[in-house]
Design brief:
Layout: H1 7-16, H2 23-29, H3 34-43, H4 47-65, H5 72-81, H6 88-98, E1 136-146, E2 150-159, E3 165-171, H7 176-190, E4 197-200, H8 204-207, H9 209-217, E5 221-224
Parallel strand pairs: 1-4, 4-5
Antiparallel strand pairs: 1-2, 2-3
Length: 234
């Protein structure tokens, strides 16, 4: 891999490590003549700083062009395409020192539960047809990333006949109360009667005793997606 590292990078590395290792030893190990190393400062004082500043300026430009999305690997590939000779390690170090990093938001990954999910009756059974309102509702929780509060949660209830979200609640925490308030909102708007099917996933908020008791109060019929079946998902 020696041939892929240019002379300036070696000089840069030796200078950065000179406080920790003898220059003579590093020059011998890296096969860099000491005269070449010292001459680089006599002929072009601090040339490695100049080279790094020029490279950093280009790194900033590429990062800004990507609207902050590019991390070091993509910036490095872009530099190579534009004819720059540098290693990924060098780009990583320069970006880290300058505080430049990708601003891509990580995807939400729910924490896995160690408890066994209990299958429950799927009354809806993928029959999404209706003849009137208040026959079949589906409910779910959506994860929404915000700039000020991070991950927030939207609980919503949709009538399969109208395809309208008449019941919903937004919160910074995912609690049983969140889904209960969304259900109450829909009940108040729709004025539903007994026998209505409410289909949800097997999330703990929907299988909770509090939610099931609320369904009983309104004489609604609970229905649950089968575990691991996306076609059942509310």
């Amino acid at each position: 891999m020696r041939e892929k590292i240019d002379e300036q990078e070696l000089i840069d590395y030796i200078e950065s490590e000179s406080e920790h290792h003898p220059i003579q030893v590093m020059c011998r190990v890296l096969k860099m003549p000491r005269s070449t190393y010292y001459d680089s400062f006599h002929k072009k004082p601090n040339s490695y700083h100049v080279a790094n500043e020029e490279l950093l300026e280009k790194i900033r430009a590429i990062h800004q062009e990507s609207k902050g999305r590019y991390g070091a690997p993509k910036v490095h590939r872009k530099l190579l395409k534009e004819g720059y000779s540098c290693s990924l390690k060098r780009v990583l170090r320069l970006m880290k020192e300058a505080g430049i990093q990708s601003n891509i938001t990580k995807k939400y990954r729910p924490t896995s539960s160690q408890s066994r999910v209990e299958e429950r009756e799927n009354v809806l059974d993928q029959d999404f047809t209706t003849t009137s309102i208040n026959e079949k509702w589906v409910a779910d929780i959506t994860y929404i990333h915000t700039l000020h509060h991070g991950w927030c949660y939207l609980a919503s209830v949709l009538d399969l006949h109208t395809k309208k979200l008449d019941g919903y609640r937004f919160s910074r925490t995912m609690t049983n109360e969140l889904v209960l308030e969304a259900l109450e909102n829909d009940v108040n708007v729709q004025k539903s009667g007994p026998g209505l099917i409410v289909h949800t996933d097997l999330g703990t908020q929907y299988t909770s005793e509090a939610f099931q008791e609320r369904l009983k109060k309104y004489e609604m019929i609970p229905s649950f997606s089968r575990k691991g079946c996306p076609y059942d998902n509310a």
